[in-house]
Amino acid sequence: MATSKITSLFPDNFLWGAASAAYQVEGAYNIDGKGPSIWDIFSHQPGTTHEGTNGDVAADHYHRFKEDVALMAELGMQSYRFSISWPRLFPEGRGKVNAAGVKFYSDLIDELLRHGIKPMITLYHWDLPQALQDIGGWESRETVDAFEQYARLCYQEFGNRVELWSTFNETLIFIGMGYFTGAHPPGLHDPKRGIQACHHVFIAHARAVKTFREYKNTGQIPANGQIGFVNVMQPHDSITNSSEDVAACQMADDLLTHWLYDPVLKGEYPAHILNLAQLTWDVPEFAPEDEALLKDNICDFIGVNYYKREWVAANPDVDNTKINTTGNKGSGQEFGIKGLFKFVHNPQSTYTDWDWEIYPEGLCVGMMRLKERYGDIPFYITENGLGAKDPIIDGEVIDQPRIDYLASHIDAAELAIKQGIDVRGYYPWSFIDLLSWLNGYQKQYGFVYVDRENDLQRKRKKSFFWYKDVIASNGSKR
């Protein structure tokens, strides 16, 4: 139930927004000169996604962005986080620029600004050009070079109008599921190759940050421009106080949190995990300039994508990396890496249909833990939302569970601010119903419903009107 407060702790310049990603909303996967991405290829392979769904059409945002931006303006959004499709700008990943792709994003940015909506650009949200995957993808240094060229083009074309940038979204997922579990492209089960690919992502990030600051110093990007990195924030708690479970929880933190945050916020890897990786697999291999690049290019802010906490237990036996992609509660198996840790359910907790724990306090707890490790860094909550099969009652999308979920997490964000965390914006996932990767279109997150049986017509959900009031009241009405 929505509530009102007399005052709000959210600062006046707090950004209320929403988020999306190119492959999940744009469609138009093979027109106007766009090249294929790894997801264009992967999602067309049998058995890779729920019921064979893909992003060929998605929400057709490419053709309907003006309609969508008008809805954002009606919602009152102050900022919109979206990603740029690398193969839409560089069909081959590098070399020749696709002018039509540049024009699309330029027009989108202008439309947002015309409605007073601040763009936040993510350079990489998983859709690597297939041409680069064909030469080794993130395992290749050539891809690092190509990413710097791509970032440079984006700064040149859009930097004078965009203040907020992030380089990568959720390395944990696109590297973890791409190279360790095989569920995402390139579909590998090879830790050695995955660790080296992950290192190249961090080097690409550092080079993009370095280039960003060069453009900023010459005035081609506004003086208040900032660049960050977006990570999964998934707090881990030990299911018991046994020494075995506590040690397993620490290992989960080291591998799934510290390994991914330390390089962008401290400029180095956790030493004991780096030593373990190099002793076991001889990776990551460093080029001579890598260490200095990481140290000298700490990002300006961190974006956190928070959906759930994981309870952790010692794991002597479970070796399973499959997850629930059906939306049938309880159908998932325990995720575990034998000998390291496993994720277990707490019978006292509440879970979504995709077996994700609903734990609003974790939004505050997670940022507090990050502050303890990294100091006073600015945070943007770049994703937070409820994936659900929304009910339609008498023609209306009544997504009350989403309202309850978001309201409780906004409470936690306000508590974080009260406790001294520098939180600067909130971007629920997502503005509009979109392709949820392996889950297809059945897992809905948006404030706007897309009628896939009726020409992709947009319809405002109950949560749309609720969030409009939240924004208008700067968070005091929720």
From TrEMBL:
GO terms for biological process: cellulose catabolic process. It comes from the Bacteria. Its EC number is 3.2.1.21. Substrate binds at residues 24, 125, 169, 307, 429. It catalyses: Hydrolysis of terminal, non-reducing beta-D-glucosyl residues with release of beta-D-glucose. Gene3D superfamilies: Glycosidases (3.20.20.80). The keyword Cytoplasm does not apply. The active site is at 170 (proton donor), 383 (nucleophile). GO terms for cellular component: cytosol. Transmembrane segments: none annotated. Keywords: Carbohydrate metabolism, Cellulose degradation, Glycosidase, Hydrolase, Polysaccharide degradation. It is an enzyme of class 3 (hydrolase). One of its GO terms (molecular function) is beta-glucosidase activity. Belongs to the glycosyl hydrolase 1 family. This is Beta-glucosidase. It comes from Photobacterium lipolyticum. The lineage of its organism: Bacteria, Pseudomonadati, Pseudomonadota, Gammaproteobacteria, Vibrionales.
